[in-house]
Amino acid sequence: MSTNSIQLSLFLQPAQGVKAIQTPITSRTFTAEESAYINGPKVSQGSGWLSSLPTWMNLALETERTQQVLSGNGELKACRLDVLIFLYESALMGPLTNEYANIYFVLARELCTRYLRQNGPWPLEVRELSSWEDRLLVGMQIDLRKRIAKAYKAKWKNIA
User: Fold this and answer.
1) Are 32 and 39 in contact (CB under 8 A)?
2) Which of 114, 83, 115, 112 is CA-nearest to residue 100?
3) 151 near 44, Cβ under 8 Å?
4) Are 43 and 36 in contact (CB under 8 A)?
5) Is 96 left (phi over 0), alpha (psi -120 to 50) or beta?
6) What CA–CA distance (Å, rounded) separates 102 from 127?
7) DSSP result, 125-141
8) Across 100-126, average pLDDT
9) How far is 90 from 5, CA to CA, in rounded Å?
């Protein structure tokens, strides 16, 4: 297994209402698979809606992916922002089922609260995830992580 040693200093500029988030510099060595995930593309369903993705999501993605890898909790799972981005595009393509809509709203509340300046309470009443919805979320995280790594490897195979 090959490794890539990289120094990280991730910082989101406070633009368009995005909070500044600083991730400390680390000299941790990332495996090739981890690097492929951190630097991999967003999973798209080919609808073209990803071009309308809010700026803060693009800015936060590398930070969220790196934190997922560094946490040790997500060895084979994509971060929650990857799932939110996937569901964002899905919701623009057509209606989501009740379960997926609730996952979308829970993740939106969590991540918007973390990255955006919120004045007052969250505008929607959102129930917590049921055990079934939690299993769906984990399944999506595992599937998206595999798809991101596959897309990254295909990209570099075509360049080489």
Assistant:
1) no
2) 83
3) no
4) no
5) beta
6) 7
7) --PPPPHHHHHHHHHHH
8) 84
9) 35
Tokens for 104, please give them. 């979308």
Cα distance between residue 153 and residue 36, in whole Å: 7
**Angle between helices 98-115 and 131-159 in degrees, nearest 10:** 70
pLDDT band at 64 (very low <50, low <70, confident <90, very high): very high
pTM: 0.79
Residue 22 contacts residue 10 (beta carbons within 8 Å): yes
Residue 123: partners with Cβ closer than 8 Å, 6 or more residues away:
none
Residue 146 contacts by C-beta under 8 Å, 6 or more apart in sequence? 76
Beta bridge partners of 135: none
Nearest CA-CA partner of 103 in 79, 136, 147, 76 = 136
Tell me the mean pLDDT in the region 123-132. 89
Q: Rounded to 5, what percent of the chain is helix, strand, coil?
A: 55, 10, 35
Q: Tally DSSP H helices, then E strands, for the chain.
A: 5, 4
Q: Are strands 29-31 and 22-26 parallel, antiparallel or unpaired?
A: unpaired
- H or E element in which residue 8 lies: strand 8-11
Phi/psi of residue 57, nearest 5 degrees: -65, -45
